[in-house]
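[User] Once you have settled down, look closely at the record that follows, and write a paragraph about the fold.
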Amino acid sequence: MHLDYYHQNREPIYRSLKLRILCERHLPVDPDDVIDYKLFCLNGEPYFTFVCFDRRRGLKMDYYDLDWNKHPIQKHYPISDILMPKPAHYDRMLEYARKLAAPFPFVRVDFYEAWDQIIFGELTFVPETGMGAFTPEIHDYDMDDALQLPVRC
C-alpha cells in the first residue's frame, strides 16, 4: 500500500488511483505449472501472445503469433527450446481480449487456464514502464507501425 508507481516510474495511470486491497481466488495448481498467457492488443485487436512459465527454475517467455506459430523474439528473459501447446481455450481468450481491448489503442490482456476455464489476470497499459525492448528490435518497429494512436489537438 506504500508503493507509489507514479512516483517510482512516472506511470501516469497510477497518479490518481485510490489504493485498495483485492483478494483473488487461489489457482489450484503448483506454481511451477502456472502458465501466463499475455496478449498484446493494438487498436482493440490481439497482435501477439507471449507465454510466461517455469518461474521457479528460471522464467521463460515464448512469443506466438495468433495462429500459434512460435517466433524467436526475446525480451529480458530467455526463450525456451520447447513448443508450448496452444491453450485449449485460446480462441475464447482472443475473443475476450478483443472485447476488453476495444476502447484502447494499446493494452496487454493477461489470462490463465484453470478448472478447464479461462481466468482473467489483468490489463496492463505500460508493460515494463514502457522501457522494454524486443530482440531483434525490428519487432519494436513492427508494433510501432501497427499502432494507431488518436490524434490530439
Summary: The mean pLDDT is 84.
